[in-house]
Amino acid sequence: MTTTIRPAARADVPRILEFIRSLAAYERAPEAVTATEASLEREGFGPNPYYFCLIAEHDGRTAGYALFFYNYSTWVGPGIYLEDIFVEPELRGLGIGKLLLERVAAIAVEKGCARLQWAVLDWNTPAIEFYRAMGGEFLDEWRNVRVTGEALRRLATCGGADGACAP
Amino acid sequence: MTTTIRPAARADVPRILEFIRSLAAYERAPEAVTATEASLEREGFGPNPYYFCLIAEHDGRTAGYALFFYNYSTWVGPGIYLEDIFVEPELRGLGIGKLLLERVAAIAVEKGCARLQWAVLDWNTPAIEFYRAMGGEFLDEWRNVRVTGEALRRLATCGGADGACAP
Lengths: 167, 167
Hints:
Largest sheet of chain A: 5 strands, mixed
Strand order of the largest sheet of chain A: 1-2-3-4-5
Number of strands of chain A: 7
Strand content of chain A: 25-35%
Helix content of chain A: 25-40%
CATH architecture of chain A: 3-Layer(aba) Sandwich
CATH topology of chain A: Aminopeptidase
CATH superfamily of chain A: Gcn5-related N-acetyltransferase (GNAT)
CATH class of chain A: Alpha Beta
Oligomer: homodimer
Number of helices of chain A: 5
Number of domains of chain A: 1
Shape of chain A: globular
Order of helices and strands of chain A: EHHEEEHEHEEH
């Protein structure tokens, strides 16, 4: 039984979307995925891609994926943010997730990145233990904040070039 | 007294580095900044910038900055990650931070981003209250994980193209 890791190609997009939906279901948010094959193709396989993706194949079958982009720290410069990592449930325990994470780490080092970062749900104990074993450090002093939807539009209305809500 | 928000130019790099160091000192990590004027110039003002920066000017004086990059959600597509936002201590309470955040939100909406996201230290109560007032939602179910330094190199050694540590 062999596992190989390769960069995703445009033809993998339908499978990537299946993986994304499976991961969202595992993360208890199956309805949160609004991405489509067309959006994933446009955003990942154009001239200035928003993301990069690796595919794991196990015995010739697509078994999982890792999807990342470059982020930036004003303290230490460019880094990699691992948005998604996922292995099909029936293929877990074979080291496939480890191979994916190692390949992302290798890309980070090749590109001169000082950090590889990601996020995990606090109830996902198997993942937390795996990440700790891989040398992951938990940044529990930091809280993530997000503005979306109507709140984002409201904030943006004030911040347009005409400074509509300026004091 | 007027505040204006404008995109940073290459000539702002020395001032941006001062702001970054001031913010790091406020965040109790003054020694963490390894960025230099040269690295900030290369990474933010080349053909494929890693980050974008806005400068706030108050009565003709640089008063603060917001620094961001584009991230990617496999659920909803491109977003903006606000890495830093900072206003000089003696100029707080004048709405300058709000103007910076509003302008970043306006850029997010202009670019079709569904989310604006950032992180805050859990003891930074004034910032937390400000973000909540701006419509920020706290994602406290998610824990941030990071691999850096020796742990990153070790992980990367296994993940090279030759798969040195493959099972």
